[in-house]
Amino acid sequence: MAKPNVWEVVRRKEGTFDILHKGKLLRAEISDKWLEDELGRIGFCGQEYRDIRRQLEESDKAQIVL
To answer: How high is the pLDDT of residue 3?
Structure first.
């Protein structure tokens, strides 16, 4: 059985972000300045990006299940 298609964005203590897919680290220590670009490369833009930002503001972690 395949793992669920889960993406996570996590804010580190120093303010940078990590992006994980299915529990594996894809990108590490992304500055806030470049987070939107990195997520856009993966395919999260527009409303999806705004939803991720909202989750990060609430809990320093965003989870997207596709």
So the answer is: 72
CA–CA distance, 19 with 29 (Å, rounded to integer): 9
pTM: 0.91
List the beta bridge partners of residue 8.
Answer: 20, 63
What is the pLDDT, as a whole number, of residue 34?
98
Host domain of residue 12:
6-65
Q: Could you give the CA distance from residue 36 to residue 38 in angstroms, rounded to a whole number?
A: 6
**Residue 40 pLDDT greater than 80, yes or no:** yes
Question: Sheet of 6-11: strands edge to edge?
Answer: 24-30, 17-21, 6-11, 61-65
Q: How many domains does the chain have?
A: 1
